[in-house]
Design brief:
Layout (H helix, E strand, L loop, with lengths): L9 H5 L4 H26 L4 H7 L4 H9 L6 H10 L8
């Protein structure tokens, strides 16, 4: 018997998902994008995680976890990190 792999487009995979799945997917995607933006901003300012953490009065490990995109972030923590980077939080 010959093994074949069927390829599906993004829309084919996600059009049949529940609204709960779609909401979770959007939230997860937003968290990953936010983590990437924070890391990119830190690197563009040539700052280490340790420096940002010190400015934000938190352990460096929190910055590392935040930048990994694998963990959620509270509004309080986001505000401290944004301030440490000289930024403000804006809802668009």
């Amino acid at each position: 018997m010959k093994n074949t792999i069927k390829m599906y487009s993004f829309n084919e995979v996600f059009k049949k998902k529940t609204s709960e799945f779609n909401r979770g997917y959007r939230e997860e995607s937003a968290r990953i994008v936010l983590a990437h933006k924070i890391k990119s901003e830190r690197e563009s300012q040539k700052l280490t995680q340790k420096i940002v953490a010190k400015r934000a009065s938190m352990p460096q490990s929190v910055i590392a976890r935040l930048e990994s995109g694998e963990h959620g972030i509270s509004v309080d923590t986001l505000g401290k990190v944004a301030n440490a980077l000289g930024k403000q939080i804006a809802l668009v």
